[in-house]
Design goal:
mainly alpha; elongated; 0% strand; 96 residues
């Protein structure tokens, strides 16, 4: 009886560890998604003059341009998803 109870407790611990790891992975994925969105918004604010949005002084944007290669690539890739932005968000949240 004691052995059976011990196995049951070990099984519950394993289930708890797996569930905990799955939740951590989901949280990490959501944080990465949010970081990409914030980077995209920052680039759009900084270089919005290229698409007709009001922006900070152009000289500042040009000074920051060499340091923002990855963010500009992200902005370009996000432009491909511009037709269905909610689809991307709902896909991340796993809502059908």
């Amino acid at each position: 009886m004691k052995s059976l109870l011990g196995r049951f407790v070990r099984l519950l611990r394993q289930i708890w560890r797996v569930a905990s790891q799955v939740q951590r992975d989901k949280a990490t994925g959501m944080l990465e998604f949010e970081l990409k969105e914030l980077e995209n918004i920052f680039v759009m604010l900084l270089f919005g003059s290229f698409v007709g949005l009001p922006t900070p002084p152009t000289a500042m944007a040009f000074e920051l341009m060499p340091y923002m290669e990855e963010e500009i690539k992200l902005m370009i890739s996000r432009a491909d998803l511009a037709q269905d932005p909610l689809g991307n968000l709902l896909g991340m949240l796993e809502i059908d």
